[in-house]
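User: Show me a protein chain along with its predicted structure.
Assistant: Here is one chain, sequence first, then structure tokens.
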Amino acid sequence: MAENGPEVLPKPSPVFDQEPTPIQGERKRRSASQETVQPGKRRHFTATEKLRLVRAADAALASSERGALGAVLRKEGIYSSHLSTWRRQFAENGAAGLTSRQPGRKPKLDAKAQSLLAVIKENEALKHKLRVANALIGLQKKAHELLGLTLPEPSDEET
């Protein structure tokens, strides 16, 4: 023991050549050189491809060979739900039912109905302007009567 109090020992310095122990919840970081797999692209089938696949599946069923339909599905890389959807579309609307539709909400009105609606709105706006103009003309007539002014008679050329 020292004269002035207890002996003070220095703290040990951290060792840098050891890997740090992972803290709970912290994940080991991946290096940038690690290979990543790109997500697959969504496949789009044309109407002719869909029709070909439906006919191939029907032919596989007609062959009455065990596992023929599953082999066609695996070969083409499609699910049975695709096939059932396409069969339903084909049964309802024929080959035209297999065509792709635009994604998103269907427009409430087609182009013809939209143009008709625009003309109707314009007509209503013009009717409103005409009512206002007629009201102003009536007001001007009353003002001329109150002031005792005579209005010129409309000639045949103006009407």
